[in-house]
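Retro notes (design track)

What went well: tokenization of the new backbones is finally stable.
What didn't: we kept losing track of which sequence belonged to which structure.
Fix going forward: every design gets posted as structure first, then sequence, in one message. First example under the new rule, 323 residues:
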């Protein structure tokens, strides 16, 4: 008996190609869904007082594991709508933040404040581009000058978390002083030290203080753009305020001066420590290896931030010292 020979017809090839194509599309979609799930910040707001909430970030450094979520962002629910304080490190963060706020409050966002020009505090601005975004003129100038460089740097550090993120500049210049919004008496205070322009927000109605990165809690202060003496002066001014709760730029919410004292003590030590290294004639490479006090060992990422501080501050201090 002769074997039966079957010849493939053109429609057989089409059928095979279609099945292969369908499997490939399904595979790609599965990867995309999985990728999207991996890039979820899983934001959950913690109450500070009634109507005031904070998204507490990690006290580590930027990484692909945390997506750059190392910052505290916050919002105040007022009679007129929601006021947002800082928008996080990426467009993705800002969008997820906005979705959470609107879905849980059922209210519109009426104003966004940006405390300073560092990327973890403003790169979520795009998600609020239909809302007035306000800051001090110095903060806005800082974003104009350094925003794109910050964005590029974060793309390198956290990768896909930054997809579609661009440096979106605040749209409104605000001046220091008190004003009312939705039944809340808000005060804008202009200070500096952590950067050239640091905006503090004080809600007199609830007693909640938002000092931005002028205060770190259980986390080593970052000094990339710092003027330490100005920063110490600003902390002294903050200590004069009669607040009930403080939402620091990084670290847990607190109801006393501990975080301010912690920040002040580290900065005072750092300045004296580096000055002493210069007096001893130490090169930067030697300053990097000096032992750090036991009193600061409880601060998160102490050794990493100390090394960054030496690299950022020591060259200018050396130049000023020998001129």
């Amino acid at each position: 008996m002769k074997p039966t020979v079957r010849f493939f017809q053109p429609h057989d090839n089409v059928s095979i190609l279609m099945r292969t194509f369908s499997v490939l599309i399904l595979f790609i979609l599965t990867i995309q869904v999985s990728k999207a799930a991996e890039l979820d910040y899983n934001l959950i707001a913690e109450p500070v007082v009634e109507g005031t909430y904070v998204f507490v970030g990690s006290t580590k450094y930027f990484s692909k594991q945390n997506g750059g979520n190392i910052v505290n962002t916050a919002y105040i629910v007022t009679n007129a709508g929601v006021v947002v304080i800082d928008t996080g490190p990426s467009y993705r963060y800002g969008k997820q933040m906005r979705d959470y706020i609107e879905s849980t409050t059922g209210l519109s966002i009426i104003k966004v404040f940006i405390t300073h020009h560092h990327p973890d505090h403003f790169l979520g601005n795009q998600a609020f581009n239909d809302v007035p975004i306000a800051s001090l003129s110095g903060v806005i100038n800082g974003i104009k000058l350094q925003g794109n460089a910050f964005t590029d740097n974060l793309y390198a550090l956290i990768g896909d978390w930054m997809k579609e993120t661009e440096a979106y500049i605040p749209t409104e210049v605000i001046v220091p002083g008190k004003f009312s919004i939705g039944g809340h008496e808000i005060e804008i205070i202009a200070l500096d030290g952590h950067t050239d322009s640091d905006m503090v927000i004080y809600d007199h109605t609830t007693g909640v203080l938002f000092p931005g990165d002028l205060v770190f809690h259980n986390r080593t202060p970052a000094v990339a753009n710092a003027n330490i003496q100005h920063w110490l002066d600003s902390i002294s001014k903050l200590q004069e305020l009669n607040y009930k709760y403080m939402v620091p730029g990084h670290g847990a919410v607190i109801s006393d001066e501990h975080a301010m004292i912690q920040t002040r003590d580290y900065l005072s030590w750092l300045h004296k420590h580096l000055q002493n290294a210069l007096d001893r004639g130490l090169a930067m490479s030697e300053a990097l290896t000096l032992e750090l006090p036991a009193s600061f060992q409880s601060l998160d990422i102490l050794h990493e931030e100390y090394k960054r501080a030496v690299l950022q501050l020591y060259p200018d201090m050396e130049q000023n010292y020998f001129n």
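Added context from the reviewer: Helices lie at 10-38, 91-105, 119-122, 137-158, 228-238, 258-279, 284-287, 302-322.
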